[in-house]
Specification:
The protein has 15 helices and no strands. It has helices at 3-13, 16-49, 51-87, 91-118, 120-126, 134-163, 167-191, 196-214, 234-308, 311-346, 352-365, 369-384, 388-414, 416-420, 422-443. The protein is mostly helical. It folds into two domains: 17-232, no CATH class; 245-449, no CATH class. InterPro entries: MATE_fam, MATE_MepA-like, MATE_MepA_subfamily, MdtK-like.
């Protein structure tokens, strides 16, 4: 039996729980490495170059977020179609989708980068730069705009490699990028004494190294990924963009969350509230990667089983993923209740009013994780099975519509506690709505054999 047939056999015949774990662990580690990669620049720049330089790269950081969002938008859309074609045993079509997706990502990234580069100074001011921070913001932004296509290609390529049955290599690529980024930041900033340009070059170079690691996948005989003759299809492009759209909205939602909570905290708790939220936000970003990793783990499996028409294995996978997310959420919530003081101390020494706000915030906000993981998993399920409208509704409701609604109303009743509880209530309402929707939908379907 060939390696490719053996890999397909394992997907279709191995215990569903075993297959899920095989994808879950690399996905979680990869997401953790990604979060380390994002914060490394800030840590090195802040310590070496000071507060103004750090403020400059924070102002320019949305450029990285845009490239990352584009890679998810097009990468997940393309990878979903790739796995579905692979499950249907149409390898030729799968390779066409892979080639088409990478070309689409490359071209669109270049278009966005060129426009942003030409308008980089007004863009920097629009993002919050002033005369003091502008030089640092422009220096960092210029490097990202010139080489940002590497970020989108590497992340999208990683998604395709994972969908081609090699989640471990995707994980290794992320580990290499994170470790090399730390090393290069030290060399460029401390040894070569470069400015923030050095930190941006470290990120881009480390990302390129991660992309090169992924090319080892082409040495495998059991791969389905292969470049074919380039072509363009409006129909395929639209389908790719449609399926990946919930992931793009999710990235936008993170920005809405940060802005919404900052504004609400200024209104209800002043500067101390903003400082307390910044502590929680650091912790939240780490927890977020845990649940994003769970969603990422099921996408290749659901897409493949949908293409292979293995409905029973699809349902078993989503049940295991939901239970894993729910149990993990309870554990994280319990950890937040018990270790809130320790979590705050981890990020520095704060005044008593900031500490009290942050501790209370963690204990209230962490209740969201009991529902957040379920919502991430179900959003990914609907996205991977091309039920895009439901996936978009989940994302818009939990991260934008309900959150903003609760932020506008709850603080009038509960004060700052109402601010902290806005996300937990949003997640809870969405989880209940998903449960009702799935129950009603299952009643209308024939029983699984």
């Amino acid at each position: 039996m060939s390696q490719e047939k053996e890999m397909i056999r394992s997907l279709e015949t191995d215990p569903v729980g075993k297959v899920f774990i095989r994808y879950l662990i690399p996905s979680l580690v990869g997401m953790l490495m990604m979060s380390i990669n994002v914060v490394a620049d800030g840590i090195f720049v802040g310590h070496r170059l000071g507060a103004l330089a750090l403020a400059g790269i924070n102002i320019a950081s949305p450029v990285f977020s845009v490239f990352f969002a584009m890679s998810l938008w097009l990468g997940i859309g393309g990878a979903t179609l790739f796995s579905k074609s692979k499950g249907a045993k149409d390898i030729k079509q799968a390779r066409q989708i892979f080639t088409h997706s990478l070309i689409l990502i490359f071209v669109l990234t270049l278009i966005v980068a060129v426009i942003a580069y030409l308008l980089r100074e007004p863009l920097a001011y629009a993002l919050g730069a002033n005369q003091d921070t502008l030089p640092y913001a422009l220096e960092y932004m210029t490097v990202l705009l010139m080489y940002g296509f590497i970020i989108t290609i590497q992340n999208a390529f990683s998604l395709f490699v994972r969908n081609d049955g090699n989640p471990n290599l995707s994980m290794i690529s992320m580990v290499v990028s994170a470790v090399l980024n730390i090393i290069l930041n030290y060399i460029f900033l401390y040894v070569l004494d470069m400015s923030v340009k050095g930190s941006a070059l470290a990120t881009v170079t480390a990302t390129l190294a991660g992309a090169i690691v992924l090319f080892a996948h082409f040495l495998r005989k059991d791969r389905s990924l292969s470049f074919v003759k380039p072509y363009f299809s409006w129909k395929l492009a639209l389908r790719t963009l449609t399926i990946g759209f919930p992931s793009f909205i999710s990235e936008v939602g993170l920005s809405v969350f940060t802005i919404g909570y900052n504004v609400a905290m200024v209104r209800w708790a002043g500067t101390a509230g903003v400082a307390a939220f910044s502590v929680l936000n650091y912790a939240h970003n780490m927890m977020l990667m845990l649940f994003l990793g769970m969603g990422s783990a099921i996408q290749p499996l659901i897409s493949y089983y949908r293409g292979a028409k293995l409905r029973l294995r699809e349902v078993q996978t989503i049940r295991i993923a939901v239970m894993t997310a729910f149990v993990s959420g309870i554990v994280v919530f319990a950890f937040g209740l018990a270790a809130a003081n320790g979590i705050v101390s981890l990020f520095g020494n704060f005044s008593e009013d900031v500490r009290a706000l942050a501790v209370n915030g963690i204990r209230l906000f962490f209740s969201a994780y009991m529902f957040m993981g379920i919502n991430f998993v179900m959003m990914t399920y609907f996205q991977a099975s091309e039920q895009v409208k439901v996936a978009v509704w989940i994302t818009l409701s939990r991260e934008i519509i309900l959150m903003v609604l609760f932020l506008l109303t709850l603080p009038h009743i509960l004060g700052t506690s109402g601010v902290w509880l806005s996300i937990p209530l949003s997640e809870c309402v969405v989880a209940v709505c998903i449960f009702i929707y799935v129950r009603r939908k299952n009643r209308s379907l024939p029983a699984l054999q």
